Amino acid sequence: MAQPAFEEVVEDFEFLEDWEDRYRMVIEMGKDMAPMPDALKVPATKVEGCASQVWLHMTPEQGVFHFQGDSDALIVKGLIALLHRLYDGLPVAEVGVVDARSELGRLGLNDHLSAQRSNGLRAMIERIREQAAE
Fold it and tell me: Residue 108 CA to chain centroid, in angstroms?
């Protein structure tokens, strides 16, 4: 089972039948995220493989995984917010165990993202898993 914050999103998605409403919810989640400081938007935090500009900065603290993220695209920033709800606060050792594709599949995202967005999402997940493994 996913983090409680992600489970809340799954429950909310169940009440939204229209994909336009679901997209709006994802975009709003991105807008509600704490801003990532510009000083962290450097080449080392940039995620390659995304059509938009994407930055992820991971900070494990006392064995707990935390990260910040940002994008210049609203929907992508919303996807970062989803990943934040999925991974942030997990013990570092558990990050690699999370089946993000399956969890995000519960939202129906696999069927509703463009190929470019899906590739970018995979790149973000891969970066998170790599950083947690280090």
Answer: 15
Q: Cβ contacts of residue 115 below 8 Å, gap of 6+?
A: none
Q: Helix %, strand %, coil % for the chain, to 5?
A: 60, 10, 30
The single residue of 47, 50, 56, 132 carrying the catalytic annotation is 50
Res. 36: pLDDT tops 90: yes
**pLDDT at position 1 over 70:** no
pTM (two decimals): 0.93
132 is known as an active-site residue: no
What domains appear along the chain, each with residue ranges and CATH number? 4-133 (3.90.1010.10)
